[in-house]
Amino acid sequence: MSTTRCLWCGNDPLYMEYHDLEWGKQVKDDKTLFEFMILESAQAGLSWITILKRRPHYKEAFADFDVQAVAKFTPEDVEHILTNTGVVRHRRKIETSITNAQIFIKIQEEFGSFYEYLYQFMPNRERIENNILTQKDTVVTSLESDLISKDLKKRGVKFFGSTICYAYMQAVGMVNDHLNSCTFRN
């Protein structure tokens, strides 16, 4: 049986593994949702493969993506992360990750989980199954990503505009944008 993948992952083994095992798979646990918030925010202005290659370094720098720990990071922690050559050393993005962690916790407290918060924006509180015949059928934003990013911005979240939010939604399976012909669509 031959394997068909979405074209965007090309032949890079790391990209193919990410595509096959994670991208578009529905995530319900808040730890992973927080991890992807940090990673997608770090991606702003960069390629996803740049961040994907640095993911282990982000895991180490951001306390294994423990939102409670990251929310308590100090200016000294920021300085320490800035010495880590394995992460994108962008002070504002690092500082924003801490603020975003604090907001993430407030959202969890308000809604019971970040997952519940996100899915209030989804039609019937369910993931969207898009009909993707070719890569040209994909979009970079949606009504839902507009609404989520706008609400998060009001709450103080940064580096999470509609385009980054849509990439996040794809990554955590809120939308299924695998090609219809992709072996890994479901």
Unreliable sequence segments? none
Structural class: mainly alpha
Shape: globular
Which percent band covers the strand fraction? under 5%
Tell me the number of strands: 2
Helix content: 40-55%
Radius of gyration: 16 Å
Please tally the helical runs, counting DSSP H or I stretches of 4 or more residues.
9
Main attributes of the structure:
single chain; mainly alpha; 2 strands
Question: Mind explaining what this structure looks like?
Answer:
The protein is 54% helix and 2% strand. The protein has nine helices and two strands, in the order αααααααβααβ. Strands 1-2 form a two-stranded parallel ribbon. Helix 2 runs antiparallel to helix 6. It is globular and about 50 Å long. The mean pLDDT is 96.
Task: Write the topology of this structure.
Blueprint: H1 13-21, H2 30-43, H3 48-61, H4 67-71, H5 75-82, H6 91-111, H7 114-119, E1 128-129, H8 143-155, H9 162-171, E2 175-176
Parallel strand pairs: 1-2
The gist of it:
54% of the residues lie in helices and 2% in strands.
